[in-house]
Write a structure and sequence with these properties.
mainly beta, Immunoglobulin-like, three-stranded antiparallel beta sheet, 7 strands, elongated
Length: 146
């Protein structure tokens, strides 16, 4: 038995190269490895008519979150403001403060990026990405002649 050195960069690169969310490819945001702890957890659900992306953004308000579609990329950004501190404050631990994140998803040709809808409720951001008519699964029953 032998030990093999773990190379996180190459493992992550391989992971991202194998992913295919909402079309070919997944775009890890710049600084992904450094800011991994700040990234919201995300679910991507496919339904016959649409994709639904759900991201956990606890404590964020509507003005803290920005969603945009630019060509074939859907980007979710968030930033919370740092609390103003008193010069007499002396922290022993400071884990809560200024946070920002960016998640990006590449949209495939079968989705309508112009019709994305967003809803923020109870710390959960829900994005609805409708499929284009030609991308929706259609079932056609074929009659069998005797």
């Amino acid at each position: 038995m032998s030990l093999v050195a773990w190379k996180p960069e190459s493992d992550w690169d391989e992971f991202f190269n194998q992913q295919s969310l909402l079309g070919p490819g997944f775009c890890p945001p710049e600084g992904f490895r450094e800011n991994f702890a700040n990234l919201p957890l995300v679910n991507v659900l496919e339904r016959p008519e649409e994709f639904v992306i759900t991201a956990e953004v606890p404590g964020m308000k509507r003005e803290d979150v920005h969603v945009e579609v630019d060509r074939d990329a859907l980007t979710i950004k968030g930033e919370t403001q740092t609390v103003v501190e008193d010069e007499n404050d002396r922290y022993h631990f400071k884990e809560i403060g200024h946070k920002n994140f960016e998640r990006r998803f590449r949209l495939g040709k079968g989705v309508d990026g112009d019709a994305v809808k967003a809803k923020l409720e109870n710390g959960q951001l829900t994005l609805t990405v409708p499929k284009k008519e030609e991308a929706k699964k259609k079932t056609v029953e074929i009659k069998i002649d005797s």
